[in-house]
Amino acid sequence: MSEQPAPADTARHQLEPAAADAVRAYAAKTRENADQLAAVLEDIATNGLPSVEDCTPWEDLRETHLARLTRQRPAVA
Asked: What does DSSP assign to residue 54?
C-alpha cells in the first residue's frame, strides 16, 4: 500500500457496517499482537535472553501449532 493519502478528488467508498466492524476487530487484534511482541522485546532488552533451560524448542512449538491447526480444519472424506 502507498504511504501517500488518496488524492482529494478521489471519492472514497464507505464499507458496510459489518465489514467496518470486521476491519476494526482485525485492527484491534493486530494492535494486541504488536503490543505483546513489544512487551517481549522490551523484557529481553531489560533482562537479556532467557536461559536455554527456560525455553521451549521450536520443534515443540511447531508441532503444537500444527496440531492446533489440524483440530481446527474440517476432516476431508
From this structure: G
